[in-house]
Amino acid sequence: MADVEIQSQTPQSDAATQPHVMQCYEVWGGNEPVERGVVMQGLDAFVFGVPHDGATAGGDIHYVSSCATGRITRVLLADVSGHGIEVAEVATRLRSILRRFVNYVDQARLAAQINQEFAKLSSGGHFATAVIATCWGPTGEIEITNAGHPPPLLYRARKKEWTVVAAGDRLEATGPSDLPLGILDDTAYGRGKVRLREGDLLVMYTDALIEAKKADGNLLGVVGLVDVAQGLSDVSADGLAKALVDGVIAQTAYSVLDDDATVMVLRSNPSVPRGSLRMGLATTRRLLHELVDSLKPGTEGFAWPQLRIDNVLGSFFDRLNRR
Fold first, then answer.
1. pTM of the predicted model, to two decimals?
2. Among residues 88, 114, 138, 273, which one has the fewest Cβ atoms lying within 10 Å of its Cβ?
3. Cβ–Cβ contacts within 10 Å for residue 151, how many?
């Protein structure tokens, strides 16, 4: 896998700056301050997050997950209403849901399930904007679902150009679509798709960056954020998340952001998972081991694989992973 490292301007321990290498079945993340690289099969992620006013935790929640074979990697960034212990509870629920669907290729059911979980909390006024990205490792295809969240940015290295990622198709939705999580149970969510070529970057962020007030009193906005990103062309991928936050702060009237701020930068890497007899047998053993463990008291339960030919047999036969 690619060697990544985040350089920070503030002193940190070696453990905090070393990239975290994802293991199969793992879900990593939370809502605490973070500055770290994460290495997955076919995808690197760089995360920088700072809760507002120096808090130890905030309303921005970030997660990455890896399936039993490493072919399905998933990234979630959510901006939850509320703070403190209540948000920590939401973060725990989100982790549990991601763990349950860690072996699902299609994220439609995941988005619907997360929305329903937030709806259960709606009596307390909880809702969240979120963007979910699922990468199919063998092809590098990334599927994006946006639930009322600021649109991701896409950098094409060949053109040296930043663009905004538009919402996906509505999947024959006849009712409300793409609303924040927890507003309506029957909300439909679109899914757009992108592929990252060498040097390309996909950037997800929370609204603190586009709601930053400039000296003239106007909000920076998405267009202003694109301008900031375009001015950071000499910054490497592993330093871009923090540099983007610093660049926005430099544009503000008070040199500070008025909310939690989190940025996640995604980049493809050359460690593409390939189906083979060896991978298939290893996956089968891993699934059986997880199934046995799930029967023990206090465990999270078994994460059933989605019943699709590419998902079930693709670990044995690589040709089934092509799209």
1. 0.88
2. 88
3. 19
